[in-house]
Amino acid sequence: MQPRTDLEPVLLVDQRDGWTKLTLNRPERLNSFNEAMHRALAAALDEAGADERCRAVLLTGAGRGFCAGQDLGDRVGGDEPPDLGATIEAFYNPLVRRLRALRKPVVCAVNGVAAGAGANIAFACDIVLAARSAKFIQAFAKIGLVPDSGGTFFLPRLVGPARARGLALLAEPLPAESAEAWGLIWRAVDDDALLAEAERLTAHLATQPTQGLSLIKQALDASEDNSLDEQLDLERDFQRRAGRTPDYREGVSAFMAKRAPRFSGRDS
Ligand code: T3D
Questions:
Q1: How far apart, in whole angstroms, are the C-alpha atoms of residue 152 and residue 251?
Q2: Is any ligand 1 atom within 6 A of the Cβ of residue 205?
Q3: Residue 112: its pLDDT value, please?
Q4: Which of 2, 30, 87, 146 most suits a substitution to test ligand 1, by most atoms within 8 Å of the C-beta?
Q5: Considering the entire predicted model, what is its pTM?
Q6: Which atom of ligand 1 is nearest the CA belonging to 75?
Q7: What are the chain's domains?
Q8: Alpha carbon nearest to ligand 1 atom 39, residue
């Protein structure tokens, strides 16, 4: 593959009708993260979050990979060992928090290998589709590191402790179809259908009751720590808020009138 020039953006931002497509664009390094890509992705997610016209986000990668985690080329050389805690604090943790806190759904189209932080960033998204040829690799153990970007949080919750330990300690590639069967992702899709399916799903989500979807995201995240009693109280409070949105009114009116709803996504 040709080396990139400094003029090529490391993130492609494509604003569609009601949603935004973000494409990691360092294909010659399997879209591994450098600081520039972190900064561009953070800015694009903040922009998507602030833009009322954007009601869903699609994240994918250019070329044959989705993301190979940290660019290890940035970690060679130097007399002193690098402070990896500092990059986790500055970039990876804020990215996972941004994805989870975004008040609109994030679809991830894993177009190829997702390794290290690249895999766990996919798992932090709301709906993950993967090309049938894609693989997920907790590559950390192979270089003496610990799963980060929420890996030690998401893996046991998604696949249970035995499989989480196997994936993290052995760092073996997990094919997309097994990832679907294990409940790590929503669906494995034929390679040539992946992008169209991901775009269709994102465009659909962008027409749905955005405030309600945001409350669903928040409720499911809160359930990780809450007791049943706490979660029941939270559902009561969230339902109260959802019931005051124009989209709830529209949903009920459309149902009663036997017509398709036209959701605005607005909170008032
Ligand atoms: O450092 C911190 O800030 C802490 C945070 C850490 C977060 C992390 O993500 S740590 C984990 C880092 N990632 C890895 O360890 C994965 C490394 N990559 C691989 O194991 C393999 O590349 C894959 C299994 C992902 C794919 O294998 P394959 O055979 O399909 O492709 P390849 O030939 O290995 O890679 C293609 C090119 O991409 C190659 O470059 P070349 O030889 O064509 O010039 C390769 O060096 C490059 N590449 C792939 N992954 C990375 C990378 N270059 C830099 N960093 C990478 N992570």
A1: 39
A2: no
A3: 98
A4: 30
A5: 0.97
A6: 1
A7: 11-205 (3.90.226.10), 210-257 (1.10.12)
A8: 29
